[in-house]
C-alpha cells in the first residue's frame, strides 16, 4: 500500500504542475512526460506484481491514461511509417516546406543540408552574426533573396515578397507579412524567440526551482506580448492566416502556453512523425522548438532535422496553403 500511495502522490503533484499553472512548480516540467510516467508508475507496478493490490493496478492504468492524454509523443511515434504514404507524398507537392532552426551554440547552418529539403520559408533564431542569414539565403536561393531580420533572428523565403518587419516588444521575436507566389491572400509569419530557460536543472536545488519560476513568469509575459501584437497587427493590416515558428524554451505541456494553443495549432501535435524532441541535440528529450499555424492552413507532415554543431534539432512542417 505504501508504494501505491507514493505513486498516487506523485500523480497528484504532477497534475497540479500541469493544470494549476503555478510558477512555483514550473521546474517539474523539466522532465518529459514519458520519463515522469515511467519513474512514478514503478512503485505502483511493483506493488501490483508483488502484492497483487488492485489499487496499485488502478494507479498504473491512471498513469498510463494520463501520459497518453497529456503527451503527444505517442501519436507521433504511431505515425512512423506513414512518410511513404502515396496520399501524403501527393499532398506534399502542394505544400510549403517550413523549417525553424535555433542557431544557438552553432557557427553557421550548412546550406548543403537544407538544399535537398527545398524549404520555402526558413525561420532562424540566435544567429551568432546576422550576416549568416544573408550568406545562407544567397547559397540557397541565389542573389537578391527576400529576407527580414530583427536582432539575431531572421526569416528567409524562397519565393514571393516580404513586407516590413514588426518587432515584438519584450523579446527578439518579430512579425512580417509574406506574399507567396500563386496565392492571393498573404500569410503572417511570426519568428518566436523566447527567453532561454536556466541552465540549472538540479531539482534538489532551491535556486533551480526559483529560476524556473521566474522563467515561467517571463514566458507568460512574452506570450501575452506576442498575442497582443498579432491582434494589433490584425487591426492594422487585416486578419490573415498565421505561421508561427521558433524557440519556445519550454515544453508544450506547460500551462503558460494555453492561450497560445487556443489560437495556434501545433504542427507536430496534428501531423508529427517520430519522437519530435529537439533538445539537447546529443540526446533529445524535450520538445522546446515548435511550428504553429492558424486555419485555413493545415499541416500534413511534421518532423525534426539534425544539423551538426547546433544545440537543438531543427523542426520542419509541410503546410498546405489556402
TrEMBL record:
GO molecular function: endonuclease activity; exonuclease activity
Source superkingdom: Bacteria
UniProt-listed InterPro entries: Endo/exonu/phosph_ase_sf (IPR036691)
Record has Mitochondrion as a keyword: no
UniProt keyword Chloroplast, yes or no: no
Keywords: Endonuclease, Exonuclease, Hydrolase, Membrane, Nuclease, Transmembrane, Transmembrane helix
Transmembrane segments: 27-47, 54-74
Name of the molecule in the record: Endonuclease/exonuclease/phosphatase
Amino acid at each position: 500500500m505504501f508504494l501505491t500511495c507514493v505513486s498516487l502522490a506523485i500523480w497528484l503533484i504532477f497534475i497540479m504542475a500541469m493544470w494549476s499553472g503555478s510558477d512555483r512548480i514550473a521546474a517539474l516540467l523539466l522532465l518529459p512526460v514519458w520519463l515522469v510516467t515511467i519513474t512514478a508508475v514503478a512503485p505502483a507496478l511493483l506493488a501490483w506484481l508483488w502484492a497483487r493490490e488492485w489499487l496499485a493496478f488502478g494507479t498504473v492504468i491512471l498513469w498510463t491514461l494520463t501520459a497518453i492524454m497529456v503527451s503527444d509523443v505517442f501519436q507521433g511515434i504511431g505515425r512512423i511509417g506513414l512518410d511513404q504514404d502515396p496520399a501524403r507524398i501527393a499532398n506534399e507537392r502542394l505544400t510549403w516546406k517550413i523549417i525553424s532552426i535555433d542557431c544557438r551554440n552553432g557557427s553557421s547552418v550548412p546550406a548543403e543540408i537544407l538544399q535537398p529539403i527545398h524549404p520555402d520559408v526558413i525561420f532562424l533564431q540566435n544567429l551568432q552574426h546576422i550576416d549568416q542569414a544573408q550568406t545562407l539565403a544567397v547559397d540557397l536561393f541565389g542573389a537578391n533573396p527576400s529576407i527580414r531580420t530583427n536582432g539575431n533572428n531572421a526569416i528567409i523565403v524562397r519565393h514571393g515578397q516580404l513586407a516590413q518587419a514588426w518587432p515584438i516588444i519584450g523579446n527578439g521575436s518579430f512579425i512580417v507579412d509574406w506574399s507567396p507566389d500563386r496565392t492571393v491572400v498573404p500569410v503572417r509569419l511570426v519568428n518566436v524567440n523566447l527567453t532561454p530557460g536556466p541552465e540549472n536543472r538540479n531539482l534538489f536545488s532551491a535556486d533551480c526551482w526559483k529560476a524556473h519560476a521566474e522563467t515561467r513568469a517571463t514566458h507568460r509575459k512574452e506570450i501575452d506580448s506576442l498575442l497582443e501584437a498579432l491582434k494589433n497587427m490584425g487591426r492594422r493590416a487585416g486578419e490573415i492566416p498565421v505561421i508561427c515558428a521558433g524557440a519556445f524554451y519550454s515544453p508544450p505541456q506547460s500551462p503558460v502556453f494555453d492561450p497560445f494553443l487556443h489560437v495556434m495549432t501545433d504542427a507536430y501535435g496534428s501531423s508529427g512523425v517520430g519522437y519530435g524532441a529537439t533538445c539537447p541535440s546529443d540526446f533529445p528529450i524535450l520538445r522546446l522548438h515548435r511550428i504553429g499555424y492558424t486555419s485555413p492552413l493545415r499541416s500534413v507532415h511534421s518532423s525534426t532535422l539534425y544539423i551538426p554543431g547546433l544545440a537543438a534539432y531543427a523542426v520542419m512542417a509541410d503546410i498546405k496553403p489556402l
